[in-house]
Amino acid sequence: MVERFPMDIPFGWFFVGYTDELAKGEVRTVRYFDEDLVLFRTEGGEVGLTEAYCAHLGAHLGVGGKIEGEKLVCPFHSWGYNTKGFCTEVPYAKRIPPILERKPALKSYPLVEKNNVIWAWYHPQGLEPFFDVIEHEEIGHPDWEELDRYCWTINTNPQEIAENGVDTAHFKYVHGMDAVPEGKTTYEGHLRHSLAEGERTLAMPNGEMKTITSRVETVQNGAGQKYTRIGGVTDTLLMVLVTPVTREQVELRFAFSHRKFPKESFEYTAARFAIALVIGQTGVEGDIPIWNNKIHRRHPILCDGDGPIMQFRNYFQQFYVPRLAEAAE
Ligand code: FES
Ligand SMILES: [Fe+2]
């Protein structure tokens, strides 16, 4: 059997849920980072992501587990856990095992909530976060729309999805776009920043051709956070959220917001049209069949019309621990 991808799961901050979709007292079973996990919110509002199996006799905490106050309580013998994975209560024990006080009984993930997203820090060696999630002032701003959300499960990995942005040649053959605006890209540590500005002539929703000044700015912040600001007729923000489910499967989410305009306005129609382009064959739907079936060529044969693919791979390499890095070249 061909191994499709030589690389492991990269580290970074990854989407594990939307803030407004996880209620207080809710316990959810999820599978991310090749592990069975539970995501929960206490009655006080704190959020936790821990391994799914109880440290006692291994019951699944997401099946019958309940929130009581600040604890996630196991359905089997009622041991209670906090959001950091510490067992804080064994209701029937006369003497609590001392180990439970010394260290967390369950593996847990560092979490932050920003941009209406619950972000988990994944690192294969369990290192603490060494950079932050970037916050967007547009999200939750009264002048900006609620998030418009899309999700796909795809048999690929975060690097393959991110590489698509620098693969200049495919825009014509997959997405039917004549020209991709030339952008300026800078790499700085874990950040990749690209900016494409210029006049573009676009077909408007009513079929009319119109020349507008467009500005497309994309930032990649580690393996799991990427966003694009599209300025033109309407300012739009797109969060690209990729979460590894296993080494060979991801959940890809697009969440859009744009300035509020009356539904009948030209600006509103243009914003909806731009979103439809990013979602449809001209966007991610065009890439999905390719991603689902391709392999990763470590040593691809490239030509002068290809984008800066190897430069991108050099940048992305930093999100693998060295032991795994050689394999991802
Ligand atoms: S298995 Fe969870 S409390 Fe016993
Ligand atoms: Fe693409």
What are its keywords?
329 residues; Rieske Iron-sulfur Protein; Naphthalene 1,2-dioxygenase Alpha Subunit, Chain A, domain 1; 2 domains; seven-stranded antiparallel β-sheet; four-stranded antiparallel β-sheet; 7 helices; 17 strands; binds FE2/S2 (inorganic) cluster; binds fe (ii) ion
| Overall SS class | alpha+beta
Number of helices: 7
Which consecutive residue ranges, at least 5 long each, have pLDDT under 50? none
The name CATH uses for the topology of the largest domain is Naphthalene 1,2-dioxygenase Alpha Subunit, Chain A, domain 1
Q: Determine the fraction of residues in helical runs and give it as a percent range.
A: 10-25%
What number of structural domains do the residues give? 2
Strand order of the largest sheet: 11-17-16-15-14-13-12
% residues in beta strands: 25-35%
Quote the average pLDDT. 92
Taken from the alpha-carbon principal axes, the silhouette is: globular
CATH architecture of the largest domain: Alpha-Beta Complex
CATH homologous superfamily identity of the largest domain = Naphthalene 1,2-dioxygenase Alpha Subunit, Chain A, domain 1
